[in-house]
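One chain given next:
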Amino acid sequence: MQNYSVERKEAIIKKMLPPLSMSVSELMRMEGIPRGTLYSWKTAVIKKEQPVPENEQKNRLNLSAIAKLSAVVETIAMNEIELSMYCREKGFYPQEVKQWKQACIDGQEIKIKQDKEVSSQSKVDKQRIRELERELNRKEKALAETAALLVLRKKLNALWENEVGES
């Protein structure tokens, strides 16, 4: 039994999976690896529920949000068959595109909810500001009245002192 390097094994498995999707017979002829070995590798990857080798999967997870949104927009009107063909061509899996679509929907729902919360908070804030402005105006008027009374009292006291001093 021959041992194959991890890099070579991953490269061959990558050829078996989308977007290349080469057949086991084709790979057997190209690489000179026994059919049973290729099938066991493919089965192991499928059983792991990891359809792509880990390093390749990490590269696909690093797609930008724009790239994911673009894929969702391009596939929005496609049926399952068209979606599968598109995904094979681009190297995605249909369930990934569906997850991205759901993430877009969830994000939009969160945005709408946040906008409603901000709007209601804004109304509450505006009402509180009006109440505070009314209270401030009332206090300013009371302060002005108190200041006027103090000035009048000083004038009255000064007037009485002059009258007492003259008598």
Remarks:
- The chain is about 80% helix and 0% strand.
- Confidence is low (pLDDT under 50) at residues 50-59.
- The two ends are 132 Å apart (CA to CA).
- The first helix runs from residue 6 to 16.
